[in-house]
Amino acid sequence: MSSKVKDTIKAILFPVVAVILSLFISVFFVMWAKGYSITQYFTALTDLVSTIWTGSFGTQRNTMATLAEVTPLIFTGVANAVAFRCGLFNIGVGGQFVLGMVAAAIVGTIPGLSPIVHIPLIIVSGIVAGGIWGGIPGFLKAKFGTSEVINTIMMNYISIALANYIILRTAFGVPGKAATPMIQESAKLARFVQGSSANISLFIGIITAIIMAFILWKTTIGYEIRAVGINPHGAEYGGVNVAKNAVLAMVLSGAIAGLGGATHVAGVKHLIQDFMVVPSYGFDGIAVALLAKKNPVACILSAILFGALNSSSRALQISGIPKEIVFLIQSVIIIFVATDYIVTYFGNKKKKGEIMNG
């Protein structure tokens, strides 16, 4: 069996094993919460799995709520995956998502446009806003060597302050309401079911993931981004411009996050209110990308898992299982995934040592 096939099987198998093990471990907390004895382990396991399934996909209403939760996670997961592929940690995906929301909320209020024009304009505005916001820390990284982690964290707070200033202190906000006006009907994305926030931006997210996978593995641009992420010194020796690709990866990552924010406004919110904190989608997207092993297409499945867990929290609470069990499952999954990265890191280090000594 070739090493490529082995790597593919491992990439698919490990996340699945991580999810299964996290469920088996979380069952002990369900047993504690509901008073099950140790002999009722499999009863508690069945209770947990069935409640998660019912709360996320058991009815049409629950399914639509889950799809609405999954959609932004696809965008933020893919955004993080692109940055990871270049060896960068874009902690600012949440802030870029916010700037995409702001851009969409402003552009969406333009009157007199056809949906054929207005919706693409919304999409482009989110891409541009997020791309610029992601490109700034990318440029600082390439030009001055500053940490993109620190810069993106700080820019998250700046994005919130900027968004709130626009909402509360400019003509784009509604006086006394701490919100922007409702966007025009021509700027709204079609929803799957009346009364549900699930909308066609789900398909935009899926298409985005497929396009990014094609770019990363089938184009010269993607090859260079991945080469920089694997070994920047080796890539530079091979003629790849490391600085340029660091900026490009951050721009692409920010653009995808901004697109997610724009479609979230166009499909779900239809306006934005003042922000107290950065939306959690950006940080959840890190977990989505890690579980997907930095594969944009796999981010779709990973986002479905995390979206289903988030969506089922209310059903868990009703069933007598603390909703915090959702965060526990997610945490255990991340621990297992992180363990795999640590093992791989030391394995590669050992191989390098053997080569040097050999």
Automatic annotation (TrEMBL):
The keyword Zinc appears for this protein: no
PANTHER family reported for this sequence: ABC TRANSPORTER, PERMEASE PROTEIN, GUANOSINE ABC TRANSPORTER PERMEASE PROTEIN NUPP
Organism: Clostridium sulfidigenes
Membrane-spanning residues: 12-33, 64-84, 91-110, 116-140, 152-172, 192-217, 325-346
Pfam families found in the cross-reference section: BPD_transp_2
Descriptive protein name: ABC transporter permease
GO cellular component, as recorded: plasma membrane
Keywords recorded for this protein, A-Z: Cell membrane, Membrane, Transmembrane, Transmembrane helix
GO terms, molecular function: transmembrane transporter activity
Topology relative to the membrane: Multi-pass membrane protein
CDD domains in UniProt: TM_PBP1_transp_TpRbsC_like
Locations listed in the record: Cell membrane
